[in-house]
Structure prediction request, 729 residues.
Amino acid sequence: MGVRQEALFRIKAVELTKNERPQKVSSYFGENTFSLSIMPKHISKTTLAAFKLWMNEGKLITIEQANEIANAMKGWAISKGATYYTHWFQPMTGLTAEKHDSFISFAGPGKVIEKFSGSKLIQGEPDASSFPSGGIRATFEARGYTAWDPSSPAFIIESTLGKTLCIPTIFISYHGESLDKKLPLLRSDDALSKAAVRFLKLFGHKNVRKVISTCGAEQEYFLIDKGYYNLRQDLLLTGRTLVGAPSPKGQQLEDQYFGAIKERVLNFMYEVAEDAYKLGIPLMTRHNEVAPHQYEFAPVFEESNIAADHNQLLMELMKKVALRHNLVCLLHEKPFAGVNGSGKHLNWSLADDKGNNLLNPGDTPADNLQFLAVLVAVLRAVYLHADLLRASVAMAGNEHRLGANEAPPAIISVFLGDQLTGILDMIEKGKKTEVSKLDIIDLGVGRLPTFNKDTTDRNRTSPFAFTGAKFEFRAVGSSQNISTPIAIINTIIAESLDYVSDKILASKGKDFNTKVMQVVAEIIKETKDIRFEGNNYAPEWVKEAARRGLPNIASTHESLKALQKEENTKLFEKYNVFSREELLARYHIWIHTYNLTLEIEAHTLYEMVNASVVPFGYEYAKLLADNLGGLVHLEKDASFTLPDAVIKDQKEHLAEVFEKIYYVRKNAKEMSELLEKAKDIDGEKRAKLYFDELKPLMEHIRKHVDALECVVSDEHWDLPKYREMLFIK
Prediction:
């Protein structure tokens, strides 16, 4: 029995012990968070009020109030079993990071007390030398600082033997530059709020003090059995299969999508949801996705900063809980070739501090006038800054996914649906049109439109689609930290809202409504090319997009050039989201990360080919050669007569196997030489070489390995196959 067959024989679901838990989620939701609903039980009303002002308006609390909150947080955490605390932050690696410190403080020989001060709560000093800075600081400058983010509640992470208090923080350099994903997001929220409040005041909303972006990130992922995962070097080291022939049955019948969830997977989903609810993560939906053994969790909307934290926590929970079930959670954008990859559809919207959604068509013509002005501001932002949106999702994993049949193409466009498209077309032409009262009544420049809130069907092929009261940015990769895409969306829309406000104030219309409609009509005309209602997968759209002048950037290194453009630098500096140095740092870090990712994949592939694939092929070739030699011997020595075609077929099959082995080895050698050549090339030039030459070479190797897999006997092929990994019970 081969290693693969033995793994198949041993695969089974873990036996679970059913614990008695509260039946109502509401009875334990957020129990592991030091939230605003928990804080009144632990701190004074005065300090709570000061904390809320800090959280909402940036008015700093006093050191005495910080000490009170720290002491309360410590007492709450210890009462729940925590013995350590950490400043939890999100460096530019895209992951999360933490350095744990004990609550204990030495009070004399052999004595300790639990102590946690306001200064330790507000600021920490982890070693920053291990985290990428993109040139912001020298490698030997180890100092970095974490600073408490009061807008995101502290939480407790549970492990089998203990608990840790985690304090969400930003991460900055000695001189104050952002070294993380979180600070630019917080800055962009501030910029967006200022622009949106100014915009709303023009529409008569004088009492609105704050506007927030809200998000809900749909999280797609794959699950495979841990036994198979451990036999796949490529999955272990890169998160995706570098070789593997497609299964005869993949997703063709679409019988996985929304089908009954297997019990083993359902148990995993149940445990993830329970842990998520304890952390206040509002998971709402769980279901199968299109590909075999692909699934999705979807939360309800939250303030973007908290949604970003919760998505990072959710990914960590999913990976941790999967292992308890002898499963592995794969978050790579394309872990299996030939079937759908995984995205993270980012649902984005705007809400004021009165609870009003700015992307929700209203009940009155005045409400809809405001909605149309916000809508065209979004269109303008995407039209002018499609390059930044593309850069926000540029990464090695997404190169495999964007443009495939389950994901939007690299061309950024906006889908609005028939009804909104009809409205915008009529406004552009300045025509008054009678339409069904179920949809629109008396539309024209002279009279403002009233229309349904559910204004569109979904277009699964669009990268930026209006899906009713929100936009869905579908190009985000499943493994990504959503903070950067949100920060970029917030910034470009803040600039567009300011532009719309300026144009309205400068308009010479007779009255306010006419001024707004003139501005709306003007922007509709200017941004018409960004709107596309058809099939984004169609080859015709690629040609049409080129005719419209829309960028179609397939590679990561080309996409990231948007971060170096002078006009983009000025935009981010104007809104205090990124400095010039911070943008350049991110460009260099993400280029470097891309190169490292491709190098790890290539070296892994080279090792797999030489240590596993080729030996498998030779073993099978020897079997064929021995069999052929035996037949020839029988014919010669035993007067055993066979048709010539039989011997010819055996020779052709043996030659076919050797030919495939030859091309695998030949291309592997070329790949090794290319990697050696790349050592003398840096940065973007290396990334270009990898995209233009290394990736096609790796695909060529894969082609021949997969062909070999299809002819080598199961007994001689130890790498788990797609048909097994994707169809476990």
